[in-house]
Amino acid sequence: MTTPRRAVFLFVGFLVVASPSAGAQDRVADAYDAYRTGEYDIAVSVLSDLLRSEPSTNAAVLLGRVLRETGRYQEAEELLRQSTATDGTSLELVTQLGEVLLATGRAEQAMDEFRRAANAGNTGPLLAHLRVAEILIQRGERREGTDRLNWIVAQYDGGQVTSSEDLATVAAALKRLGRSDPGRFREALRVYDQSIAADSTNLDAQVAGGDLFLSKYQGADARAMYQLALSRNPNHPAAILGLAQVRRFDGASDAFELTERSLDVNPNLVPAHVLAARQYLDLEAYPKANDAARLALETNPRDPMAHTMLAASALLSGDHDGFARLLQRARDNAPHDPKIFIALAEVAARNRLYRRAVAFGDSAIALDSLSWRGYALRGINRLRTGDIAGGREDLEVAFTGDPFDLWTKNTLDLMDDVAQYTVVQSDRFELAIPAREAELLALYLVPVAEAAWDSLSAHYGVSPATPLRLEVYPRHADFSVRTIGLVGMGALGVSFGPVIAMDAPSARPPGSFHWGTTLWHELAHSFHMEASGYRVPRWFTEGLAVFEERRARPGWGDRIQPDFLIAYLEDRLAPVEDLNQGFMRPAYPRQVIFSYYQSSLVFDFITERWGFPAIVALLQGYGEGTNTPEIFETVLHLDLPAFAQAYDEYFRTRFAGPRSEEHTSELQSH
């Protein structure tokens, strides 16, 4: 990413005064307009000139905000320390200094500043009281922190809160109190609305409202709030980051670009670096994830989420000692915070380590019995591992504690429906099928599933635990909820290992998909996960599953398409060394489809040159915690660049041109 050029301003030798002239007030107003529309450099220039010629507290407070929002923390600290030394009566300046110290990992020093402001009682900024409460809770002093949160809300209930910024602080306190009283979440949203109504330029309140929606998986509402802020200030880094989080959950490839865009505005935005690390973990690009987390730690060396991302990277890389060490470092910085284990559960589940996700949910709940997200994650992942009763029990607890979590609600509603399905038993499978379709579908599904089991167990020399549960959904929206908690997923099936979920034929227009090849594909994933200890990379299992489809039945599996060859000739396919890129960060709409076929050809190549046992050996290598470069060199005796070159030569030979017999026959088949 590129960082915009910025002027450097020195704040030395000026005095802060509380009563600026009318002309100075106009210049502060101009700077505020520039700040609120994202013209940060203009705001900095105007305010810096003003402070040198006619200093004022208002200008110093605003300049501190601009510098903090753009990540210029050192400059902000110098300004605010000089300003508070000169004007010790401005509690806003003191609070701003506390915000800078907090953002850079100095919570205890920040606490001193916040207490200094809060000790002024009703005249102190409510934000200072909120920060004191949050730091107390982070320390484990929940009762005292909660009492202070209730005090903030009491000021509102007593009619003493009218400003937009203070209303947003009340809303944040209500959101915190929602942990033990879920009705507070609804109140928080109402007060955020009041804050925005009081000042439509309070973009921070709009972003905070979006964050509240996002925390409940209400993506459409969150997106609307972030876009509202961005319509006024297209450079607001927190709003851009919020939109990136929504897009990531949607599975959209532009989530990366939005994250980078937020860092273009604020290169030191710690949550953005943490989100970048999560995205790299999705790509299984562990060195890049580590780099992103370390960039976060350069700004805030104590950030628990950055340390958690480093721990997650070690876990996924098979570095068990490193994981234990890095997890302890994260916990040292936030010993009472269940969000560390919640983040690990989320990362584990996105990387198919569902049993580890359950264990991380256990840890979150053990640390905080009111961690409703911990219960929800444990429940969802219990469902994925086949513990239907245990998963439902956890989700019921989570819903009681937080009835506004849309993922939890949708999944519970779906489980109510699935409880009415007919369960059909076969030798190795438990099929849950809607009653009206069960008798007919079982006639077709059972023989294909059992035949696939026989074939795949012979190929890989392993067998998942039985019975393997197969859930068949008559509505695609139901399948989508089972997978990601919301409607909108584009896939036809998903394998969690012990559980497979897929669309029924009735869920799609006639002729639009082949249920047999989908079932075979998803069951292949279950075998790949079993053979690799659930550590198989996404590109590897997807390509190998398509390879298995093709050799299962004539006409099954992807076949060459002219637009795939055009993409290859135009160098628009993901490099073989980074095939996850095509699945997780596609550069154009068809790249995901192309990546399935492209990955499957890797296994055609390996089988032709080294034989199928080499594929089994690669899977076993992943199970031993070895990474892709090491496994390929050990099993195939080629490093990744050499393998990529050999594969490219194989591809060119196989599809040498329209006269190629294989190429011609495959094109004619379409």
Question: Which class of secondary structure composition applies to the elements?
Answer: mainly alpha
Beta-strand portion reads: under 5%
Please give the radius of gyration in angstroms: 28 Å
* Strands, count: 5
Overall pLDDT metric: 91
Determine the fraction of residues in helical runs and give it as a percent range.
55-70%
Largest β sheet strand count, sense and barrel closure: 5 strands, mixed
Strands of the widest sheet, in order across it, are: 1-2-3-5-4
Distance between the termini: 42 Å
Q: What is the overall number of helices? A: 34
Poorly predicted ranges = 1-18, 658-670
| Large-scale geometry | globular
Write the layout of secondary structure elements.
Elements: H1 22-36, H2 40-53, H3 57-69, H4 73-86, H5 91-103, H6 107-118, H7 126-139, H8 142-157, H9 164-177, H10 183-198, H11 203-215, H12 219-232, H13 237-250, H14 255-265, H15 270-282, H16 286-299, H17 304-316, H18 320-333, H19 339-350, H20 354-367, H21 372-384, H22 388-401, H23 406-418, E1 422-425, E2 429-433, H24 435-460, E3 468-473, H25 476-484, E4 493-495, E5 499-503, H26 515-531, H27 538-552, H28 562-569, H29 580-584, H30 591-610, H31 612-623, H32 628-636, H33 640-654, H34 661-668
Parallel strand pairs: 2-3, 3-5
Antiparallel strand pairs: 1-2, 4-5
Helix pairs in contact: 1-2, 1-3, 2-3, 3-4, 3-5, 4-5, 5-6, 6-7, 7-8, 8-9, 9-10, 9-11, 10-11, 11-12, 11-13, 12-13, 13-14, 14-15, 15-16, 15-17, 16-17, 17-18, 17-19, 19-20, 19-21, 20-21, 21-22, 22-23, 23-25, 24-26, 26-27, 27-30, 30-31, 31-32
